[in-house]
Write a structure and sequence with these properties.
globular, alpha+beta, about 150 residues, Pnp Oxidase, Chain A, single chain, eight-stranded antiparallel β-sheet
Length: about 150
C-alpha cells in the first residue's frame, strides 16, 4: 500500500470512528452536520459475509427524494468496502436523526456525476483534492427511497 493510500485510509478511519465517538458521547445529538453536509449512517450487506454493515458518511446533497454520497475514501486508490457492498446488493438503509429509511443505491452515470460534481465540490472542495490524488474515478452514489 502506498504512503498516500495509508494516509487516506487512516484519515477515513479517524473521521468515521471520531464521528461515532462523538455521537456516543453526546447521545446522538452531535454532530448532525459535518463540514456543511448531512451526516448519516449507511447500512449495506457485506458482499462476502452477508452481514449488515454500518458506515458513517456525509451527504453533500441531501433531500427527501435523493441522497448523494461520494465513495472517496480520502483519495485512496481502492474503493471503500461500503461501495463494493452496495454494488453487489443495492438495497441499503440510511439512518438520519434516528430514522431509518430503506433505500436503493446506484452509481451515478458519467453525465449525472458531471451534473452533480460542481454542487458536491461547492459544499466540500476536499472532494476535488481526493479525485486529483487518485487514478480511479471516484464514484458518486445516488440513494433513493424504496
Amino acid at each position: 500500500m502506498s504512503m498516500a493510500d495509508r494516509t487516506a485510509s487512516a484519515g477515513a478511519w479517524m473521521l468515521e470512528n471520531g464521528h461515532r465517538a462523538l455521537l456516543a458521547v453526546t447521545g446522538g445529538r452531535f454532530p448532525r452536520r459535518l463540514l456543511g453536509m448531512q451526516t448519516l449512517e449507511l447500512y449495506t450487506t457485506g458482499r462476502k459475509s452477508g452481514q449488515r454493515r454500518g458506515t458513517m458518511l456525509t451527504a453533500p446533497v441531501y433531500g427527501p427524494d435523493q441522497v448523494v454520497v461520494v465513495a472517496s475514501k480520502g483519495g485512496h486508490s481502492d474503493h471503500p468496502d461500503w461501495y463494493k457492498n452496495l454494488v453487489v446488493t443495492p438495497e441499503v438503509e440510511v439512518t438520519v436523526d434516528d430514522v431509518t429509511t430503506p433505500m436503493t443505491a446506484r452509481t451515478a452515470t458519467a453525465a449525472e456525476k458531471a451534473a452533480l460534481w460542481p454542487q458536491i465540490t461547492k459544499v466540500n472542495p476536499g472532494y476535488e483534492g481526493y479525485q486529483k490524488r487518485t487514478d480511479r474515478d471516484i464514484p458518486v452514489v445516488i440513494l433513493t427511497p424504496r
